Amino acid sequence: MKERAAGRCGPSDPRIFLRSGGGSSAVYQVSDQSLASLQKAPVDFTATSPFLFDNDKVQNVKLTWKGQSWMLAKTDKDKVTAEASWKLGDKDLKGSEASPLLDQLSFLHTAQLPQPASSQSTANGEFKVEIGLSVDGKDTTEVYEGKLSQDQVWLAKQGGEWAYLLTAADVQKVADAYAGKPEEASK
Fold first, then answer.
1. Could you tell me the mean pLDDT of each successive run of 10 residues in the chain, 187 residues long?
2. Sign of torsion, CA 103 106 111 117?
3. Listing from the earlier edge strand, what are the strands of the sheet with 58-65?
């Protein structure tokens, strides 16, 4: 195994040098920018989205935020998301209009490490997502509940191990998308 060393000539020296071991005396100067991609936090190695589902298996989504609910439902049950017809409330949607709504959920993520679900109160909160899935011909429903605390929402899947800290602003953007509000209106 080769030994490598990195360092600076002094505390105020902005240059970084890298020496490769293994009998070589070569020293290379590297930039901070080159090393920046190596500086990772634990959250960089963690799944940060509470929602993990295949869009094509989704049959419906009921989203509730601060007392208001919206239902997105596939009307062509046997078609993939992009080819199916959908309804958002009483409005007909094409698959190309429904896919971004499903993606809104998938794109929600935490910037912090998830916490054990048992350590966070999420039940009976202001945010709830019920996702109806059809997997191998069997219909199931995954339920996620989140509780608002100031400008953040702790969200966990019922029976899941982890709770995810989301910003209320991000949750509001998803609710606005399901409510049919343009993105500019939510800013």
1. 59 68 70 72 81 96 98 94 96 96 95 94 95 95 96 97 97 96 56
2. positive
3. 91-94, 85-88, 68-74, 58-65, 127-135, 138-149, 152-157, 162-167, 115-116
**How high is the pLDDT of residue 185?**
41
With respect to residue 70, please indicate whether it lies within any of the assigned structural domains: yes
Residues 168 and 96 occupy one common structural domain? yes
Is-contact 172 183, C-beta < 8 A? no
pTM, two decimals, is 0.78
Report how many domains make up the chain. 2
By the 8 A CB rule, do 164 and 48 touch? Answer: yes
Write out the residue range of the structural domain in which residue 115 sits.
Answer: 55-186
User: Both 104 and 176 in a single domain?
Assistant: yes
Output the CA angle 164-143-44, nearest 5 degrees.
Answer: 25
Whether 124 contacts 78, CB under 8 Å: no
The pLDDT score that the predictor gives to residue 99 is 96
Give the DSSP letter string of 16-69: EEEEE-TT---EEEE-HHHHHTT---GGGGS---S----GGGEEEEEEEETTEE
Question: Residue 137 and residue 68: Cα distance in Å, rounded?
Answer: 31
CB contact at 8 A, 142 and 62:
no
Q: Which two tokens stand for residue 142?
A: 């995954």
- For residues 63 and 142, state if they share a domain: yes
Instruction: Tell me the β-bridge partners of 53.
Output: none
